[in-house]
User: Fold O-antigen ligase from Aliiruegeria haliotis.
Amino acid sequence: MTPPRKDNRSVTPPRWSWQTHRDRQEIAPALGKGPRDTYWRVPGARRVDTGQATARRLSIWDAVSVAFAVAGLFYFSGSLVAPLTPEGAASSTAVQLLGLGFGFLSFLGLIVRPGAVTRAFTKAWPVLIPVALAMLSMTWSIDIGVSLRRVLALLFATLFGLWIVDRFPLHIVLPLIAWSAVLIVVANVVTSLALPSMGVHPGTTVQGEPNPHAGAWRGLFDHKNDFGRMMALCVSILWVATGPGQRWRRVRWGALALGYLGVAGSNSAQAALLAVAVPIFGHILFLLRPLSPSKRAMVVLMAGPVMVTGWVFYQFVFVFVLSLLGKDPTLTGRTEIWIGVLRALQGNMGLGGGFGAGWDLVGERLYILMGIRIGHAHNGFLDLMTDLGVVGLCVMLTFYVYLTVLSVHTSFGDRFQDLGRLGFAVATFALVGNGAASFLLLHNSIYWVLPVVCVAAMRRDNRRPTASRRAPPPRPVKNIFAS
Assistant:
Protein backbone atom coordinates (compact mmCIF):
# COMPACT_ATOMS: atom_id res chain seq x y z
CA MET A 1 0.00 0.00 0.00
CA THR A 2 1.32 3.45 -0.92
CA PRO A 3 2.29 5.38 2.24
CA PRO A 4 0.38 8.68 2.74
CA ARG A 5 2.16 12.01 3.03
CA LYS A 6 1.63 14.51 5.82
CA ASP A 7 -0.60 16.60 3.57
CA ASN A 8 -2.78 13.49 2.96
CA ARG A 9 -1.60 13.20 -0.64
CA SER A 10 -0.36 9.79 -1.79
CA VAL A 11 3.13 9.27 -3.14
CA THR A 12 3.42 7.33 -6.39
CA PRO A 13 6.25 4.80 -6.09
CA PRO A 14 9.00 5.06 -8.70
CA ARG A 15 8.62 2.80 -11.68
CA TRP A 16 10.77 -0.28 -11.41
CA SER A 17 13.25 -1.23 -14.10
CA TRP A 18 15.98 -3.80 -14.58
CA GLN A 19 18.64 -1.08 -14.55
CA THR A 20 17.44 0.34 -11.24
CA HIS A 21 17.28 -3.16 -9.82
CA ARG A 22 20.81 -3.86 -11.04
CA ASP A 23 22.07 -0.72 -9.28
CA ARG A 24 20.45 -1.83 -6.02
CA GLN A 25 21.95 -5.28 -6.43
CA GLU A 26 25.46 -3.90 -6.82
CA ILE A 27 25.15 -1.33 -4.02
CA ALA A 28 23.55 -3.30 -1.22
CA PRO A 29 26.38 -5.78 -0.49
CA ALA A 30 28.91 -2.97 -0.16
CA LEU A 31 26.70 -1.23 2.39
CA GLY A 32 27.07 -4.19 4.74
CA LYS A 33 23.50 -5.43 4.43
CA GLY A 34 23.07 -9.14 5.00
CA PRO A 35 20.60 -11.40 3.21
CA ARG A 36 17.38 -10.99 5.20
CA ASP A 37 14.70 -11.80 2.68
CA THR A 38 14.23 -13.10 -0.84
CA TYR A 39 12.03 -10.92 -3.01
CA TRP A 40 13.04 -12.61 -6.26
CA ARG A 41 12.07 -16.19 -5.57
CA VAL A 42 13.34 -17.59 -8.83
CA PRO A 43 15.13 -20.83 -9.74
CA GLY A 44 18.86 -20.63 -9.27
CA ALA A 45 18.75 -17.13 -7.78
CA ARG A 46 20.85 -16.36 -4.75
CA ARG A 47 19.25 -14.71 -1.72
CA VAL A 48 18.71 -11.06 -2.51
CA ASP A 49 19.39 -8.21 -0.11
CA THR A 50 16.35 -6.23 0.97
CA GLY A 51 17.80 -3.11 -0.59
CA GLN A 52 17.66 -4.64 -4.02
CA ALA A 53 13.88 -4.50 -4.55
CA THR A 54 12.46 -1.08 -5.27
CA ALA A 55 8.93 -1.58 -6.60
CA ARG A 56 6.02 -3.96 -6.64
CA ARG A 57 5.61 -4.88 -10.29
CA LEU A 58 7.44 -5.20 -13.56
CA SER A 59 6.90 -3.06 -16.60
CA ILE A 60 5.43 -4.51 -19.78
CA TRP A 61 8.75 -3.95 -21.51
CA ASP A 62 10.54 -6.08 -18.91
CA ALA A 63 8.03 -8.90 -19.44
CA VAL A 64 8.53 -8.65 -23.21
CA SER A 65 12.30 -8.86 -22.70
CA VAL A 66 11.92 -12.01 -20.60
CA ALA A 67 9.68 -13.61 -23.24
CA PHE A 68 12.15 -12.66 -25.99
CA ALA A 69 15.05 -14.19 -24.05
CA VAL A 70 13.22 -17.47 -23.37
CA ALA A 71 11.98 -17.70 -26.97
CA GLY A 72 15.49 -17.03 -28.24
CA LEU A 73 17.03 -19.74 -26.07
CA PHE A 74 14.35 -22.16 -27.28
CA TYR A 75 15.13 -21.26 -30.89
CA PHE A 76 18.90 -21.58 -30.46
CA SER A 77 18.38 -25.02 -28.89
CA GLY A 78 17.57 -26.24 -32.40
CA SER A 79 14.08 -27.41 -31.49
CA LEU A 80 12.56 -25.48 -34.41
CA VAL A 81 14.95 -26.56 -37.17
CA ALA A 82 13.37 -29.90 -38.09
CA PRO A 83 9.71 -28.72 -37.85
CA LEU A 84 10.41 -25.65 -40.01
CA THR A 85 12.62 -27.36 -42.60
CA PRO A 86 10.82 -28.84 -45.64
CA GLU A 87 11.36 -32.55 -46.14
CA GLY A 88 14.43 -33.20 -48.23
CA ALA A 89 15.71 -29.61 -47.96
CA ALA A 90 19.19 -28.86 -46.62
CA SER A 91 18.14 -25.62 -44.93
CA SER A 92 15.08 -23.56 -44.06
CA THR A 93 14.42 -19.95 -44.93
CA ALA A 94 12.13 -19.63 -41.90
CA VAL A 95 14.90 -20.80 -39.56
CA GLN A 96 17.37 -18.40 -41.13
CA LEU A 97 14.95 -15.48 -40.84
CA LEU A 98 14.29 -16.27 -37.18
CA GLY A 99 18.01 -16.32 -36.48
CA LEU A 100 18.39 -13.03 -38.32
CA GLY A 101 15.54 -11.55 -36.28
CA PHE A 102 16.92 -12.62 -32.91
CA GLY A 103 20.40 -11.44 -33.82
CA PHE A 104 19.32 -8.09 -35.26
CA LEU A 105 17.00 -7.28 -32.35
CA SER A 106 19.75 -8.23 -29.91
CA PHE A 107 22.10 -5.90 -31.77
CA LEU A 108 19.56 -3.08 -31.52
CA GLY A 109 19.10 -3.86 -27.83
CA LEU A 110 22.82 -3.45 -27.26
CA ILE A 111 23.03 -0.27 -29.32
CA VAL A 112 20.27 1.54 -27.41
CA ARG A 113 21.69 0.63 -23.99
CA PRO A 114 24.28 3.23 -22.92
CA GLY A 115 27.75 1.74 -22.75
CA ALA A 116 26.66 -1.77 -23.79
CA VAL A 117 28.94 -1.95 -26.82
CA THR A 118 31.88 -0.67 -24.80
CA ARG A 119 31.22 -3.25 -22.09
CA ALA A 120 31.09 -5.99 -24.71
CA PHE A 121 34.56 -5.11 -26.00
CA THR A 122 36.17 -4.37 -22.64
CA LYS A 123 34.60 -7.03 -20.42
CA ALA A 124 33.42 -9.81 -22.74
CA TRP A 125 36.37 -9.73 -25.13
CA PRO A 126 37.29 -13.45 -24.63
CA VAL A 127 34.11 -14.52 -26.45
CA LEU A 128 34.93 -12.22 -29.36
CA ILE A 129 38.25 -13.91 -30.16
CA PRO A 130 36.73 -17.11 -31.65
CA VAL A 131 34.24 -14.99 -33.59
CA ALA A 132 37.05 -12.82 -34.95
CA LEU A 133 38.99 -15.91 -36.02
CA ALA A 134 35.92 -17.28 -37.79
CA MET A 135 35.50 -13.96 -39.60
CA LEU A 136 39.18 -13.91 -40.54
CA SER A 137 38.90 -17.44 -41.97
CA MET A 138 36.79 -16.07 -44.82
CA THR A 139 40.03 -14.80 -46.36
CA TRP A 140 41.24 -18.37 -46.95
CA SER A 141 37.89 -20.18 -47.14
CA ILE A 142 37.37 -22.54 -50.07
CA ASP A 143 33.69 -21.47 -50.15
CA ILE A 144 33.35 -17.88 -49.00
CA GLY A 145 29.56 -17.90 -49.41
CA VAL A 146 29.12 -20.75 -46.94
CA SER A 147 31.63 -19.23 -44.53
CA LEU A 148 29.88 -15.86 -44.68
CA ARG A 149 26.51 -17.38 -43.77
CA ARG A 150 28.02 -19.41 -40.93
CA VAL A 151 29.93 -16.41 -39.57
CA LEU A 152 26.79 -14.25 -39.57
CA ALA A 153 24.87 -16.97 -37.72
CA LEU A 154 27.70 -17.26 -35.18
CA LEU A 155 27.76 -13.48 -34.76
CA PHE A 156 23.99 -13.33 -34.19
CA ALA A 157 24.20 -16.02 -31.50
CA THR A 158 27.02 -14.08 -29.84
CA LEU A 159 25.03 -10.84 -29.89
CA PHE A 160 22.05 -12.61 -28.35
CA GLY A 161 24.16 -13.94 -25.50
CA LEU A 162 25.75 -10.54 -24.86
CA TRP A 163 22.32 -8.89 -24.86
CA ILE A 164 21.00 -11.28 -22.20
CA VAL A 165 23.87 -10.47 -19.86
CA ASP A 166 23.60 -6.72 -20.40
CA ARG A 167 19.80 -6.59 -20.22
CA PHE A 168 19.13 -8.54 -17.01
CA PRO A 169 20.57 -8.54 -13.50
CA LEU A 170 23.07 -11.30 -12.95
CA HIS A 171 20.89 -13.24 -10.53
CA ILE A 172 18.15 -13.42 -13.21
CA VAL A 173 20.40 -14.96 -15.89
CA LEU A 174 20.37 -18.50 -14.50
CA PRO A 175 16.58 -18.51 -13.91
CA LEU A 176 16.00 -17.48 -17.53
CA ILE A 177 18.20 -20.32 -18.75
CA ALA A 178 16.63 -22.80 -16.31
CA TRP A 179 13.06 -22.02 -17.36
CA SER A 180 14.12 -22.24 -21.00
CA ALA A 181 15.56 -25.69 -20.26
CA VAL A 182 12.22 -26.72 -18.74
CA LEU A 183 10.42 -25.53 -21.88
CA ILE A 184 12.83 -27.40 -24.15
CA VAL A 185 12.49 -30.64 -22.18
CA VAL A 186 8.70 -30.52 -21.99
CA ALA A 187 8.23 -29.63 -25.67
CA ASN A 188 10.52 -32.39 -26.93
CA VAL A 189 9.45 -35.19 -24.59
CA VAL A 190 5.76 -34.43 -25.09
CA THR A 191 6.33 -34.52 -28.86
CA SER A 192 7.91 -37.96 -28.58
CA LEU A 193 5.06 -39.26 -26.44
CA ALA A 194 2.07 -37.56 -28.07
CA LEU A 195 3.24 -37.39 -31.70
CA PRO A 196 5.32 -40.51 -32.38
CA SER A 197 5.06 -39.91 -36.11
CA MET A 198 7.19 -36.81 -35.57
CA GLY A 199 9.05 -37.52 -32.33
CA VAL A 200 10.11 -41.15 -32.92
CA HIS A 201 12.36 -42.57 -35.63
CA PRO A 202 10.27 -44.57 -38.14
CA GLY A 203 10.93 -48.18 -39.02
CA THR A 204 12.23 -47.39 -42.50
CA THR A 205 14.31 -44.60 -44.01
CA VAL A 206 13.24 -42.29 -46.84
CA GLN A 207 14.81 -44.73 -49.30
CA GLY A 208 12.66 -47.54 -47.89
CA GLU A 209 15.53 -49.33 -46.15
CA PRO A 210 15.36 -50.58 -42.54
CA ASN A 211 16.11 -47.77 -40.11
CA PRO A 212 18.83 -48.69 -37.58
CA HIS A 213 17.37 -46.14 -35.16
CA ALA A 214 13.78 -47.36 -35.40
CA GLY A 215 11.82 -46.66 -32.22
CA ALA A 216 14.36 -44.24 -30.74
CA TRP A 217 13.01 -40.89 -29.57
CA ARG A 218 14.07 -37.76 -31.41
CA GLY A 219 11.59 -35.16 -30.14
CA LEU A 220 11.56 -32.04 -32.28
CA PHE A 221 14.99 -32.89 -33.69
CA ASP A 222 15.88 -34.78 -36.84
CA HIS A 223 18.13 -37.33 -35.14
CA LYS A 224 18.06 -39.16 -31.82
CA ASN A 225 21.62 -38.15 -30.89
CA ASP A 226 20.81 -34.45 -31.25
CA PHE A 227 17.70 -34.91 -29.12
CA GLY A 228 19.49 -36.94 -26.46
CA ARG A 229 22.37 -34.47 -26.27
CA MET A 230 19.97 -31.56 -25.77
CA MET A 231 18.16 -33.45 -23.01
CA ALA A 232 21.52 -34.11 -21.35
CA LEU A 233 22.39 -30.40 -21.54
CA CYS A 234 19.05 -29.42 -20.03
CA VAL A 235 19.33 -31.81 -17.09
CA SER A 236 22.88 -30.54 -16.49
CA ILE A 237 21.47 -27.00 -16.27
CA LEU A 238 18.60 -28.05 -14.01
CA TRP A 239 20.96 -29.74 -11.56
CA VAL A 240 22.66 -26.35 -11.11
CA ALA A 241 19.45 -24.28 -10.83
CA THR A 242 18.56 -25.04 -7.21
CA GLY A 243 16.05 -22.28 -6.43
CA PRO A 244 14.44 -21.55 -3.05
CA GLY A 245 10.76 -21.78 -4.01
CA GLN A 246 8.70 -24.88 -3.27
CA ARG A 247 6.86 -24.56 -6.55
CA TRP A 248 10.11 -24.30 -8.49
CA ARG A 249 11.47 -27.40 -6.76
CA ARG A 250 8.48 -29.40 -7.95
CA VAL A 251 8.88 -28.05 -11.50
CA ARG A 252 12.61 -28.75 -11.43
CA TRP A 253 12.28 -32.34 -10.27
CA GLY A 254 9.52 -32.98 -12.79
CA ALA A 255 11.63 -31.54 -15.61
CA LEU A 256 14.64 -33.60 -14.48
CA ALA A 257 12.53 -36.76 -14.58
CA LEU A 258 11.28 -35.91 -18.08
CA GLY A 259 14.81 -35.04 -19.19
CA TYR A 260 16.23 -38.37 -18.07
CA LEU A 261 13.25 -40.10 -19.64
CA GLY A 262 14.17 -38.38 -22.91
CA VAL A 263 17.80 -39.47 -22.56
CA ALA A 264 16.69 -43.06 -22.04
CA GLY A 265 14.23 -42.88 -24.94
CA SER A 266 16.89 -41.54 -27.31
CA ASN A 267 18.99 -44.68 -26.85
CA SER A 268 22.08 -42.48 -27.19
CA ALA A 269 25.17 -43.69 -25.34
CA GLN A 270 26.79 -40.26 -25.54
CA ALA A 271 23.73 -38.55 -24.07
CA ALA A 272 23.63 -41.05 -21.21
CA LEU A 273 27.30 -40.40 -20.46
CA LEU A 274 26.84 -36.61 -20.47
CA ALA A 275 23.65 -36.71 -18.39
CA VAL A 276 25.48 -38.60 -15.65
CA ALA A 277 29.08 -37.36 -15.83
CA VAL A 278 28.48 -33.59 -16.02
CA PRO A 279 26.21 -33.42 -12.91
CA ILE A 280 28.72 -35.58 -11.00
CA PHE A 281 31.59 -33.24 -11.87
CA GLY A 282 29.44 -30.27 -10.89
CA HIS A 283 28.56 -31.84 -7.55
CA ILE A 284 32.24 -32.48 -6.84
CA LEU A 285 32.92 -28.79 -7.45
CA PHE A 286 30.08 -27.91 -5.08
CA LEU A 287 31.53 -30.16 -2.36
CA LEU A 288 34.92 -28.45 -2.67
CA ARG A 289 33.54 -24.99 -1.98
CA PRO A 290 33.47 -25.16 1.87
CA LEU A 291 37.10 -26.33 1.99
CA SER A 292 40.01 -24.00 2.56
CA PRO A 293 42.29 -23.18 -0.40
CA SER A 294 45.01 -25.47 0.97
CA LYS A 295 42.61 -28.40 1.25
CA ARG A 296 41.31 -27.74 -2.26
CA ALA A 297 44.87 -27.85 -3.57
CA MET A 298 45.42 -31.15 -1.77
CA VAL A 299 42.26 -32.57 -3.33
CA VAL A 300 43.41 -31.46 -6.78
CA LEU A 301 46.78 -33.16 -6.25
CA MET A 302 45.06 -36.34 -5.10
CA ALA A 303 42.77 -36.22 -8.11
CA GLY A 304 45.65 -37.18 -10.41
CA PRO A 305 46.03 -40.78 -9.18
CA VAL A 306 42.25 -41.09 -9.00
CA MET A 307 41.93 -40.04 -12.65
CA VAL A 308 44.61 -42.54 -13.67
CA THR A 309 42.77 -45.27 -11.79
CA GLY A 310 39.53 -44.23 -13.44
CA TRP A 311 41.15 -44.35 -16.85
CA VAL A 312 42.39 -47.89 -16.19
CA PHE A 313 38.90 -48.84 -14.99
CA TYR A 314 37.49 -47.37 -18.18
CA GLN A 315 39.87 -49.34 -20.35
CA PHE A 316 39.28 -52.71 -18.71
CA VAL A 317 35.66 -52.56 -17.58
CA PHE A 318 33.74 -49.95 -19.54
CA VAL A 319 35.20 -50.99 -22.87
CA PHE A 320 34.52 -54.64 -22.06
CA VAL A 321 30.89 -53.96 -21.17
CA LEU A 322 30.28 -51.90 -24.32
CA SER A 323 31.88 -54.62 -26.41
CA LEU A 324 29.45 -57.14 -24.95
CA LEU A 325 26.61 -54.79 -25.91
CA GLY A 326 27.96 -54.50 -29.44
CA LYS A 327 28.77 -50.78 -29.11
CA ASP A 328 32.00 -49.01 -29.95
CA PRO A 329 33.85 -47.60 -26.89
CA THR A 330 34.12 -44.19 -28.59
CA LEU A 331 30.30 -43.96 -28.56
CA THR A 332 30.24 -43.27 -32.30
CA GLY A 333 31.05 -46.55 -33.99
CA ARG A 334 33.18 -44.74 -36.60
CA THR A 335 36.65 -44.45 -35.07
CA GLU A 336 38.29 -45.25 -38.41
CA ILE A 337 36.91 -41.95 -39.71
CA TRP A 338 39.12 -39.95 -37.36
CA ILE A 339 42.37 -41.29 -38.80
CA GLY A 340 41.04 -40.72 -42.30
CA VAL A 341 40.16 -37.09 -41.50
CA LEU A 342 43.67 -36.41 -40.21
CA ARG A 343 45.12 -37.87 -43.39
CA ALA A 344 42.74 -35.80 -45.52
CA LEU A 345 43.75 -32.62 -43.68
CA GLN A 346 47.39 -32.88 -44.69
CA GLY A 347 48.41 -29.66 -46.36
CA ASN A 348 45.66 -27.65 -44.62
CA MET A 349 46.35 -28.66 -41.04
CA GLY A 350 47.27 -25.17 -39.87
CA LEU A 351 44.21 -23.09 -40.85
CA GLY A 352 41.68 -25.55 -42.29
CA GLY A 353 39.30 -24.81 -45.11
CA GLY A 354 37.42 -21.85 -43.60
CA PHE A 355 34.65 -21.65 -41.01
CA GLY A 356 31.75 -23.87 -42.07
CA ALA A 357 33.43 -24.87 -45.33
CA GLY A 358 36.18 -27.19 -44.15
CA TRP A 359 34.26 -30.36 -44.84
CA ASP A 360 33.93 -29.41 -48.51
CA LEU A 361 37.69 -29.82 -48.61
CA VAL A 362 38.02 -32.91 -46.41
CA GLY A 363 34.93 -34.80 -47.58
CA GLU A 364 36.16 -35.47 -51.11
CA ARG A 365 39.63 -36.41 -49.93
CA LEU A 366 38.15 -38.78 -47.35
CA TYR A 367 36.07 -40.45 -50.04
CA ILE A 368 39.17 -40.97 -52.18
CA LEU A 369 41.15 -42.37 -49.23
CA MET A 370 38.50 -44.55 -47.59
CA GLY A 371 35.60 -44.79 -50.02
CA ILE A 372 33.00 -43.41 -47.58
CA ARG A 373 30.82 -40.30 -47.77
CA ILE A 374 29.80 -38.62 -44.51
CA GLY A 375 28.98 -35.07 -43.47
CA HIS A 376 31.20 -34.68 -40.40
CA ALA A 377 33.95 -36.42 -38.45
CA HIS A 378 31.81 -37.43 -35.44
CA ASN A 379 34.33 -35.55 -33.30
CA GLY A 380 34.07 -31.87 -32.48
CA PHE A 381 37.81 -31.31 -32.21
CA LEU A 382 38.48 -32.80 -35.64
CA ASP A 383 35.52 -30.98 -37.19
CA LEU A 384 36.86 -27.69 -35.87
CA MET A 385 40.26 -28.52 -37.33
CA THR A 386 38.68 -29.00 -40.76
CA ASP A 387 37.29 -25.46 -40.49
CA LEU A 388 39.96 -23.50 -38.60
CA GLY A 389 42.90 -25.88 -38.40
CA VAL A 390 45.22 -26.37 -35.46
CA VAL A 391 45.09 -22.63 -34.79
CA GLY A 392 41.33 -22.69 -34.28
CA LEU A 393 41.52 -25.82 -32.13
CA CYS A 394 44.12 -24.20 -29.85
CA VAL A 395 42.00 -21.04 -29.57
CA MET A 396 38.87 -22.96 -28.59
CA LEU A 397 40.66 -25.26 -26.14
CA THR A 398 42.18 -22.18 -24.51
CA PHE A 399 38.74 -20.56 -24.38
CA TYR A 400 37.11 -23.52 -22.64
CA VAL A 401 40.01 -23.94 -20.23
CA TYR A 402 39.65 -20.25 -19.39
CA LEU A 403 35.90 -20.71 -18.91
CA THR A 404 36.59 -23.62 -16.56
CA VAL A 405 39.09 -21.64 -14.47
CA LEU A 406 36.82 -18.58 -14.36
CA SER A 407 33.88 -20.76 -13.33
CA VAL A 408 35.82 -22.45 -10.54
CA HIS A 409 37.00 -19.06 -9.27
CA THR A 410 33.44 -17.70 -9.30
CA SER A 411 32.06 -20.83 -7.63
CA PHE A 412 34.49 -20.38 -4.74
CA GLY A 413 33.76 -16.64 -4.47
CA ASP A 414 31.20 -14.68 -2.47
CA ARG A 415 28.81 -13.64 -5.25
CA PHE A 416 26.90 -15.46 -7.99
CA GLN A 417 28.28 -18.90 -7.20
CA ASP A 418 25.48 -20.47 -9.24
CA LEU A 419 26.77 -18.72 -12.37
CA GLY A 420 30.14 -20.30 -11.69
CA ARG A 421 28.56 -23.73 -11.39
CA LEU A 422 26.65 -23.14 -14.63
CA GLY A 423 29.83 -22.12 -16.43
CA PHE A 424 31.62 -25.18 -15.10
CA ALA A 425 28.80 -27.43 -16.32
CA VAL A 426 28.82 -25.79 -19.77
CA ALA A 427 32.61 -26.11 -20.11
CA THR A 428 32.62 -29.73 -18.92
CA PHE A 429 29.75 -30.57 -21.26
CA ALA A 430 31.64 -29.10 -24.23
CA LEU A 431 34.98 -30.75 -23.46
CA VAL A 432 33.45 -34.17 -22.82
CA GLY A 433 30.66 -34.07 -25.40
CA ASN A 434 32.81 -33.07 -28.36
CA GLY A 435 34.59 -36.39 -28.20
CA ALA A 436 31.71 -37.88 -30.18
CA ALA A 437 29.73 -34.85 -31.42
CA SER A 438 30.49 -31.53 -33.11
CA PHE A 439 29.51 -28.36 -31.25
CA LEU A 440 32.77 -26.85 -30.05
CA LEU A 441 32.10 -23.64 -32.03
CA LEU A 442 28.67 -24.17 -33.53
CA HIS A 443 26.87 -21.35 -35.31
CA ASN A 444 23.25 -20.50 -34.53
CA SER A 445 23.27 -22.77 -31.48
CA ILE A 446 22.70 -22.70 -27.74
CA TYR A 447 25.97 -24.62 -27.45
CA TRP A 448 27.69 -21.31 -28.22
CA VAL A 449 25.15 -18.96 -26.63
CA LEU A 450 25.65 -20.50 -23.18
CA PRO A 451 29.47 -20.10 -23.12
CA VAL A 452 29.01 -16.50 -24.26
CA VAL A 453 26.50 -15.84 -21.48
CA CYS A 454 28.65 -17.50 -18.82
CA VAL A 455 31.88 -15.69 -19.69
CA ALA A 456 30.21 -12.30 -20.16
CA ALA A 457 28.20 -12.62 -16.93
CA MET A 458 31.13 -13.67 -14.77
CA ARG A 459 33.35 -10.93 -16.18
CA ARG A 460 30.81 -8.15 -15.86
CA ASP A 461 32.20 -5.33 -13.76
CA ASN A 462 30.32 -4.45 -10.58
CA ARG A 463 30.68 -0.73 -9.97
CA ARG A 464 31.79 0.36 -6.51
CA PRO A 465 28.95 2.22 -4.77
CA THR A 466 29.22 5.64 -3.23
CA ALA A 467 27.41 7.14 -0.27
CA SER A 468 25.13 9.14 -2.56
CA ARG A 469 23.82 5.92 -4.12
CA ARG A 470 22.44 4.40 -0.93
CA ALA A 471 19.46 2.17 -1.60
CA PRO A 472 15.99 3.37 -0.44
CA PRO A 473 13.73 1.23 1.78
CA PRO A 474 12.80 -2.00 0.01
CA ARG A 475 9.52 -2.84 -1.65
CA PRO A 476 8.48 -6.39 -2.60
CA VAL A 477 8.82 -7.28 -6.26
CA LYS A 478 6.15 -9.25 -8.06
CA ASN A 479 7.37 -12.74 -8.84
CA ILE A 480 7.03 -13.28 -12.57
CA PHE A 481 8.81 -16.63 -12.29
CA ALA A 482 6.29 -18.16 -9.83
CA SER A 483 8.39 -19.69 -7.08
